[in-house]
Amino acid sequence: MNNLTRWENRWKPFKEMEDLQTRLFGLLHRGYGRQSLRGEGDTEESISLTQWAPLVDVSEDDQGYAIKAELPEVKKEDVRVTLENGVLTLSGERKFEQEEKDRRYHRVERAYGTFTRSFTMPDDAEADHVTAEFQDGVLNVRIAKSEKARPRSIEVKVS
Fold this sequence. Notes:
The protein is mainly beta. The chain is built from 1 helix and 9 strands. The protein has one helix at 15-28; strands at 33-38, 44-49, 56-60, 64-70, 79-84, 87-94, 113-120, 125-135, 138-145. It has a 4-stranded antiparallel β-sheet with strand order 3-4-9-8, with no helix packed on it. A 3-stranded antiparallel β-sheet has the order 5-6-7, with no helix packed on it. A two-stranded antiparallel ribbon has the order 1-2. A hairpin with a 5-residue loop joins strand 1 and strand 2. The radius of gyration is 24 Å and the shape is elongated.
């Protein structure tokens, strides 16, 4: 007959491993902040969170450059796109939802707060032709290439 072992809420077999991982992340990664949470049985748990930086894709075609940034749960009015001295900067803030009286968080792993991502503009980019669109939590920035930099086709005549 097989015996089942009941794991009690007070005994957390992997707690020591989690603590070690948290300490290692704290040593290896700067920019981690500490946040205290109330866990099971109203015990306080301290976890580490990274500073938030949205993920981006940067691509290029014959017409120009494109930057696509993932900004889930960020409002359009909390996003800024600036271009100054050849540097394109995306910045903004993802705000933490207000804690409700009847809701207790056991773990918060998604990062919140302000973010900034900066990109040096290529020499062939047209600073006067930058557009930005924000839809469904994705920011799309297009930077046109100068006419001189765009490839053109030259007809070769055979004599």
